Amino acid sequence: MTHPVSPLAVTLPEMPPLPGVRLGAAAAGIRYKGRTDLVMVELAQGTTVAGVFTRNKCPGAPIGWCREALKGGQARGLVVNAGNANVFTGRAGEEAARRSAEAAAKLLGCAEEEVFLASTGVIGEQLPYERIVSALPALHNALTEDTWHDAARGIMTTDTFPKGAVRTAKIGGQTVRIQGIAKGSGMIAPDMATMLCFVFTDAAIPAAALQSMLGKAVKTSFNRITVDSDTSTSDTVLLFATGQADHPDVPETGGPALRDFARALSEVLLDLALQVVRDGEGAQKLIRIDVEGAVSHGSAEKIAMSIANSPLVKTAVAGEDANWGRIVMAVGKAGEPADRDKLGVAVGGVWMARNGGVIDGYDEAPVVAHMKGREINIAVDLGLGKGRATAWTCDLTHGYIDINGSYRS
Amino acid sequence: MTHPVSPLAVTLPEMPPLPGVRLGAAAAGIRYKGRTDLVMVELAQGTTVAGVFTRNKCPGAPIGWCREALKGGQARGLVVNAGNANVFTGRAGEEAARRSAEAAAKLLGCAEEEVFLASTGVIGEQLPYERIVSALPALHNALTEDTWHDAARGIMTTDTFPKGAVRTAKIGGQTVRIQGIAKGSGMIAPDMATMLCFVFTDAAIPAAALQSMLGKAVKTSFNRITVDSDTSTSDTVLLFATGQADHPDVPETGGPALRDFARALSEVLLDLALQVVRDGEGAQKLIRIDVEGAVSHGSAEKIAMSIANSPLVKTAVAGEDANWGRIVMAVGKAGEPADRDKLGVAVGGVWMARNGGVIDGYDEAPVVAHMKGREINIAVDLGLGKGRATAWTCDLTHGYIDINGSYRS
């Protein structure tokens, strides 16, 4: 099942070589025919790693593998396959993961637990790891520094466009680069969508500091996007620091020296996260939701996500209807403090309701025009405090039903 | 916008007169033309009342009115209008509610706070309460004991069929009746769906005992159904006991004498709740989800609702795809204790997966046949404990997008 490219697609940026990273993609025939489905990345000695994984309680075998491997804080390789998620595959699935890591470790000359894994695709079927093991040697031989675009394509499942982001940051006056690739929200026809994101930097950053920054950056990027409120069993964000850049040493715990790096990392993650939303199943419009005036940031976040997850808000946007009534409903159902008589709602920058009622005679024309566009902005002011948060989602369209409701067997 | 009658519709049962209840419906022209949109119910002196309302933090004015009125525990009247929800209407909305209650109280010869109110329909527009006030006298004059079907139709918005349920119960050897009407899950085109449910009995039950039973019965009926996870600002369940039946006195706090009544009440509420799901927007299939083996009943309930609210599960059912992978995902995302390697999933009574893996060679034929039917059963066994719960939902189809994504302005 091939889907047309999302109307919200953006172009893959130029992705230059990053010192300490060699990568490549191969067609291992795991499920797809005639396309790449296996990506390998070799990382320089001394590379540190941080990771954030799905909170789903039934995660895939690669998630378990990565959580264990992460304890060492060191990485030399990454192997990603598309077409089979290695989820709900029991002991055999764990064995398949171990075998893949073992084969990569042998080629890379490192310990198994320095190899990270991610799988995405159909679930409940055994991963044909022999195909990975037999494809790896040739793939390893062909690794280069300038195959980022191939890697971005190789991790796709039914994503309609490849996703990448690049930023630079200063550490102690020296410029370092952060660049990453992601996949998401396409379907392994018709199984579940998965978000995978791999970010690399040439900076030298201790694993603990890396983990702390990654955790924070994920909170305001990948944890603030939603396509359909469902949580994949394989969601993975990994951040690798190859340490090849020449900058002053960074303390174990990070600190002020990493402030600019943290900013750039957040930008890369948000850029990739928004590309995932732009490729949301059936998405025709990107929706940004800004909540302010909540009693706390945490409260604002829950309200923003409640709006972002509301099927009634998302179908209204699909219908180009600035339906503030549904927005009020979604605020109320979040269960967070809200006072109906202080609530305000704006669409496209025009306040339609304030202090618990419609603004008589507000100018409808710019709102109607805004709703016809590709990028929709919704703002809510709770009028209670200083809490604020932003979330992103896409509209809910017939395309979503087409993609997810098609008969499999 | 008129929608075809749901393929899951059931027929309104015979609803005989209930001692102490006189009711009727009128066309007050609140929003609709050429149909009834105002329902009035007169209740015998001494009627006790219990109520459960939406948890939405931005509820409509009638919810605020009912919560206050409920403190008295006594009811003499109920006024329900369709076409305007009186939500997000500020002080003027509260005034409109008060005026409606006042007008009804005058006709019924009772205190304002003995009149209960419910409104459903468009939100953010002022309720034209003058139309209610001027329609009430003639409506009051025409109240009879045998217009239950008219009332069931008068509270509809874009429901595709009227909803009613009747049961009998024994209190101290005497037979009493419980019968109710409900509306739900149609849309006030295209504003939000609202569930309203009004249940009446001729039993004599103190308000405290009534409230306690209603709270319990709602937990396993209306709180276990979901159409799209959105929570209306007007959801209301009211239970009135007219005290006209001749049975031994019931203690203030209820107790064993009410055991059979509680059972019948739960049946009435569940019957009505399932009718609401059967009229879910775009519903083509009714889905029942049984969860067992969870660590507790509460945990089972969360897992059942997580499956019921999953768009990926609901679109799979729409596509007649017994996609147990998505069910596993929905179990995992509930955040409740689950062990991948103990999990089992059955569809239509056939176990497709056990102990964390597909059952090799399970019989697909009955599963495929089951998925083609109107009523789909999903069962999940966590294999951890004795917690169990059941939830109901409907599939997610193009009809849902059609109804909710149509352009309003």
From TrEMBL, chains A, B:
Q: Which residues bind substrate?
A: T157, K183, T194, E281, N404, S409
In the UniProt record, the gene name given for this protein reads: argJ
Give the matching NCBIfam families. ArgJ, PRK05388.1
Site label Involved in the stabilization of negative charge on the oxyanion by the formation of the oxyanion hole, positions: T120, G121
Which Enzyme Commission number(s) are listed? 2.3.1.35, 2.3.1.1
Subunit: Heterotetramer of two alpha and two beta chains.
What are the recorded Gene Ontology BP terms?
L-arginine biosynthetic process; ornithine biosynthetic process
Can you name this protein? Arginine biosynthesis bifunctional protein ArgJ
The subcellular location is: Cytoplasm
Recorded catalytic activity of this chain's protein: L-glutamate + acetyl-CoA = N-acetyl-L-glutamate + CoA + H(+); N(2)-acetyl-L-ornithine + L-glutamate = N-acetyl-L-glutamate + L-ornithine
One MF term in the entry's GO annotations: L-glutamate N-acetyltransferase activity
Task: Give the pathway listed in the UniProt entry for this protein.
Answer: Amino-acid biosynthesis; L-arginine biosynthesis; L-ornithine and N-acetyl-L-glutamate from L-glutamate and N(2)-acetyl-L-ornithine (cyclic): step 1/1; Amino-acid biosynthesis; L-arginine biosynthesis; N(2)-acetyl-L-ornithine from L-glutamate: step 1/4
Q: Where is this site: Cleavage?
A: A193, T194
Recorded hits in HAMAP family, A to Z, give: ArgJ
Which catalytic residues are annotated?
A: T194
Record's function text:
Catalyzes two activities which are involved in the cyclic version of arginine biosynthesis: the synthesis of N-acetylglutamate from glutamate and acetyl-CoA as the acetyl donor, and of ornithine by transacetylation between N(2)-acetylornithine and glutamate.
**What species does this protein belong to?**
Granulibacter bethesdensis (strain ATCC BAA-1260 / CGDNIH1)
Quote the cellular component terms of the Gene Ontology held in the record: cytoplasm
Sorted alphabetically, which keywords does the UniProt record give? Acyltransferase, Amino-acid biosynthesis, Arginine biosynthesis, Autocatalytic cleavage, Cytoplasm, Multifunctional enzyme, Transferase
What is the enzyme's main class? transferase
UniProt record similarity statement: Belongs to the ArgJ family.
